[in-house]
Amino acid sequence: MSTIGVSSGVMSFIMSYYRNINRDSIQFDFVYWLDGDVTYAEEIKRLGGRVFIIPKPGLTKEYKSNIENFFKKNSSYYKILHLHEVYLNNFIPPIARRYGIEHIIAHSHTTRFSDKKINALRNRLLCFPLKKNVNRYFACSEAAGKFLYGKKYFRLGKVKIINNAIDCEKFRYNKEIRVKMRKLLGINDKFVIGHVGRFNSQKNHDFLIKVFIEVLKKEPKSILILIGIGPLEEKIIQKVELENLNDKVLFLGQRNDVQDLFQAMDTFVLPSLYEGLGIVLIEAQATGLSCYTSDVVPVEAKVTEKLRYISLKSSFKEWAKLILEDNNSEDRVNEIEKVKRAGFDIKKEAKKLESIYLNFL
Q: Does residue 233 surpass a pLDDT of 70?
């Protein structure tokens, strides 16, 4: 099976499944773009996958010939093409089909085509022929599936929901790790609000900062932890400086110990403008955190009673009031069993995806 051209968040999802699927039965190969990030490439090779690097999609003859050559040389290895960047359906599936790849999957990971209006319009146009170019339909949630394929395909049972599952045991609440991380970060006696997300307009950091300012008015010993990188990071740093919050907001960048940083938090806030699911909410709930998110996030994200939806039309003061109402981290308990029962245990979900692939064949 080959998987082509994905963003960092989606790549994390794919790698979770790849690590846990039976690679003697199903093997993944990956195609990266020439000017893109090749994160995970070495791990992929260690797990038995192959990595190919080609120019980014476009209408140029060079791009078409590169894709053509890729399938001409390698199509005998594949029966399935799993397309995570669905706007590529015009470019890649027709060539893949010509070289005998029968099962072409589109996978919807979001409920918008793009943050930017011009990109959203472009991607919408590129997705018009999607249902003709692919013959299998996956989505991370019902909302993401209906967005891309329409309600009719759901009624007909054509769309398969593939949960954004996690390694639950990694997120088991551990008080020792909590004490250690809070000491390392110098936040022992603070009320800690956490956020994990790429710095782009979707994640709504500007809104989050305004909510945090209201939190500080009621609870001055509060700290906001921001984990992630992205194009709007510098803008948010400047906003924090302008509001004189430098000693109140920690920018931790891209981390590989997010599961431990969740332990250090007292609550988790995700005021996104849209989400396909919001996997960080699943992770945060698994650690027993109280979570607050915007009411545009799909209902599938609520797997414990610790998650509360708040309208983005509500005031910053209202958000702050609700967040502070549950400032009692001493009651924190493990919630991983609830997460598992909701279908987000990667060990089980990887077996399900493996069965789906094998049934195709």
A: yes
